[in-house]
Design goal:
By secondary structure, the chain is α/β, with parallel strands linked by helices. The chain contains eleven helices and ten strands.
């Protein structure tokens, strides 16, 4: 993997054309990024979901641009083959298009990520077009858009009636026309995701959007079952680290208390004597200004 070039947006789009399913996972540090990359995921998302799973916040709104750049930089150190896309956080692109371009440019220049992701439909399409024309690849995000959680009245499935569904279809087409290379569909009926996927020439990547998307994405912490209290319908837990990690920590504590860790196997040993035998002069000079510390003279200041 380390000798391969990172996948480009063109490679991702070709996967849709070839009918090859796309795998995307979140990562927020180099260690997880390296593991996900070596497992073969095509896309790694540095999501503003870090506000919830890393920082313990209730939603993604407080996450800052500097925080996204920091984590994206770490992820890019771990990823070699996967394409790294970084979320633009709340209010870094919704206003002036020039400000959005400046912020997106910072992400790519300072972190090494290859593209950015924006939430929203037709209203952000002009901004996406400006970014794409400036050479900044953009992934879109429709349906349940977490940055709009207050406007939506919470984390709710979107597009459940014909009018709302048609609006999401129209938004998806607007993002494609604006130049987005792919679009995340979150929290929408599977039937709607199927129509959008068939209507677009760019890939759709689903989360809580059913089986008909061109790819799927999950938060890595959810996939690994690291939060036992978080059990949404759309998440499948492939491991249960939320139970295994506390068990490992408890075992560590027990072995420390009973003295079975560390053992000689986990200790380092010198190959030669480190200290001369300590001797005490019964009549040291009165003006002696050093003391012996394990046989080593130490100057007194």
């Amino acid at each position: 993997m380390t000798n391969k070039k990172a996948l480009t947006t063109v490679n991702i789009q070709q996967m849709k054309q070839k009918g090859e399913p796309i795998t995307m996972l979140t990562a927020y540090d180099a260690t997880f990024a390296k593991l996900i990359d070596e497992a073969g995921a095509e896309l790694i998302l540095v999501g503003d979901s870090l506000g919830m799973v890393i920082q313990g916040l209730e939603n993604t709104i407080p996450v800052t641009l500097d925080e996204m750049i920091y984590h994206a930089k770490a992820v890019c150190r771990g990823a070699r083959h996967a394409h790294v896309v970084c979320d633009m956080p709340f209010m870094t692109y919704q206003g002036d298009a020039l400000e959005a371009m400046k912020n997106a440019g910072r992400i790519l220049k300072e972190s090494g990520a290859q593209s950015v992701k924006l939430e929203g439909g037709a209203t952000v399409a002009p901004t996406i077009e400006r970014l794409v024309n400036a050479g900044i690849p953009v992934m879109g995000h429709l349906g349940l858009t977490p940055q709009a959680v207050h406007a939506m009245g919470g984390f709710r499935v979107q597009g459940k009636n014909p009018q709302a569904a048609q609006q999401i279809v129209d938004d998806a087409l607007a993002l494609e026309r604006a130049g987005a290379y792919a679009v995340v569909l979150e929290g929408i009926p599977a039937e709607l995701a199927r129509v959008i996927t068939q209507s677009l020439s760019i890939p759709t990547i689903g989360i809580g959007a059913g089986v008909y998307c061109d790819g799927q994405v999950l938060v890595i912490y959810d996939l690994l079952g690291m939060n036992p209290d978080f059990q949404p319908k759309f998440v499948k837990k492939y491991l249960n680290l939320g139970t295994l990690i506390p068990q490992a920590v408890q075992k560590f504590k027990e072995e420390i208390r009973e003295g079975s860790f560390p053992t000689d196997e986990h200790s380092f040993h010198a190959k030669m004597p480190l200290f001369a035998p300590h001797s005490v002069d019964e009549n040291p000079p009165e003006d002696d200004d050093t003391i012996g510390l394990y046989g080593v003279p130490v100057e007194l200041g």
